Amino acid sequence: MTEKESEKEEKGSSDELEVINHELNKDFLETTTFHGLVMAYHASNTPEKIFWISACTIGFGLLVSQIFLLLSRYSTHPINTIVTRHYADELSFPAVTLCNFNSFKASYIAANNITESQVRYFREMFNVVPSYFKLNRSQAEVQQLDAWIDSLDIMQFVTDAAFTCEETIRFCQFSGEVFDCCAEALPVLTGHGLCWTLGVRTHSNGTRYSRFAQYFQSSDAGLSAWVNVHSEDYTDFYIPGSTQDQGIRINFHLPHSPTTVDTDGYAVPPGVHTYAYLDVTKYISLRSDNWGDCVNFPLPHYNVYSYEACVNNIIASEIWDQCHCRLIFQLGDTPTCKPKDMITCVQPFASDQ
After folding, report:
1. How distant, in Å, are the alpha carbons of 83, 169, 262, 308 from that of 267?
2. Is 253 helix (H, G, I), strand (E, B) or coil?
3. Closest Cα partner for 117 from 129, 134, 101?
4. From CA 188, how far away is CA 273, in angstroms rounded?
5. Could you count the other beta carbons within 10 Å of the beta carbon of residue 264?
6. Residue-wise over 127-139: b if at least 16 C-beta within 10 A, else e?
7. SS3 state of residue 64
8. Whole-angstrom Cα distance, residue 134 to residue 149?
9. Which of 17, 26, 105, 260 is 20 to 30 A from 136, alpha carbon to alpha carbon?
10. Contacts from 221-224 at CB under 8 Å and sequence distance 24+?
11. pTM
C-alpha cells in the first residue's frame, strides 16, 4: 500500500467518525429533555441561539451554586431542635379530691322523715345518664315529689345530708408534718355529691395554687390522710347514680383545674391502706395571645385555662341551649336542673350524643 492510499484511508475513517458523531449529537439534541439545548439547536437565527445557550449556562451556574451552598450548610452540622433537661428542686403537689360513695347520711334521712322515693328522686339531679326511676311511677307521685323538691333549699339539703369534712377526713400529714385537714379543705359538688379538695390555696384574685411541694420520692414524703367512710351511716337502699359499695373515691388534679373524680377517680374500700404513685408531666403552651381563634379565653367561671375546664364549659353550654338549666355540680348562676328537667330533657339529650 502506497503512502497516498494510506492517507486516503485514514481520511475516510475520520470522515465516517465525524458523520457518526454528528448523527449522535443531532439525535441527542432532538430527543433530550434538556429543553434549553433543544431550543438552541432548533433556533432559526443567531440571536435566538445565543439567548437559549445563555439561559442554559445561567441555569447550570445556579444549579452548581445551590449544590455548593447546600453542601456548605450541611458541613456546618446545623441544629434545628434543642432539647434540654432541667431537674427541678421541688414539685408542686397536685390537688386531691375525696368523695364518699354515700351522698346522704342514713341518720339525716331518718331524722327528717325523708322517704326512699324522695331520696331516689333527688339523686336524679346528679345523673346525666338515663335511669329507670321514671318507670312504675304515677303522675300523682311525680307531682308530689316535684312539690317536695320545690320546697327545698337544694344546696342546703346537699350540705346537711352529706358527711362533713370533719366527719370524713380525720387526720392529715404531708412529709411528716401534721396539719388540720379541714381548715383549708374546699367543698366541691360532683356527680358523687359533696366532696372535699385538699392541698389547695387561693390567691386574692381567685386563682388556686398548690399548698404543698415535694422534694424527693418516698411514700412518707407525700400526703397521708385517714378517712372515715362511716359504714354504719350508709343508706340501706340503692340510689340510682350512686353505688352500693362502701368506701371513697379519690382524684388527683391540678389546683386550678376542676376535678374529674366522676371519670378518673380511684376507688378505695374501707379498712385498707392505699398507696398512689404520681408521675408529673408538664406541658408549657404558647401564650394565650398566640392561640388564634380556636379557643375562647378566658373561660367563664375559671381564671386559668385547662382542658377539663374547657370540657365543662362546653357541656354546660350545650345543656343550657337544649334544656335551659345547668347541672347541680356545674358552676354558674343559671337555674339548676331539677329532677324533672333531668329525666325529661338532660338525660334523653345525653343519651343521643
Report:
1. 38, 16, 11, 20
2. strand
3. 134
4. 25
5. 13
6. bbebbebeeeeee
7. helix
8. 16
9. 105
10. 221/175, 221/176, 222/93, 222/174, 222/175, 222/278, 223/93, 223/96, 223/172, 223/173, 223/174, 223/198, 223/199, 224/171, 224/172, 224/173, 224/174
11. 0.69
Q: What does each of the 353 residues of the chain score in pLDDT, given as a tens digit? A: 555 555 545 555 566 666 666 666 667 666 776 777 777 767 778 888 788 888 888 888 898 999 998 888 888 877 666 777 777 778 888 999 999 988 889 899 999 998 888 888 888 888 777 665 555 567 888 888 889 988 989 889 999 999 999 999 999 999 888 999 898 899 999 888 899 999 888 888 778 888 888 888 777 888 899 999 988 888 766 555 555 678 899 999 988 889 988 888 888 888 888 888 777 777 766 666 666 555 555 677 787 878 888 888 888 888 999 999 998 888 888 888 888 888 888 888 887 76
**SS3 call for 162:** coil
Residue type, 58: I
CA distance 249 to 336: 25
> Which residue is it, cell 465516517?
16
What secondary structure letter does DSSP report for 333? S
DSSP 22-44: HHHHHHHHHH-S-HHHHHHHT-S
Helices 116-123 and 139-150, axial angle in degrees (round to 10): 70
Angle at 42 between CA 38 and CA 43, to 5 degrees: 115
Cell numbers placing 63: 444549579
Q: Are 161 and 104 in contact (CB under 8 A)?
A: yes
Rounded Cα distance, 319 and 301, in Å: 16
**Judging by DSSP bridges, how do beta strands 213-214 and 223-227 pair with one another?**
unpaired
End-to-end Cα separation, the chain, in angstroms: 105
- For residues 181 and 172, is the Cβ–Cβ distance under 8 A? yes
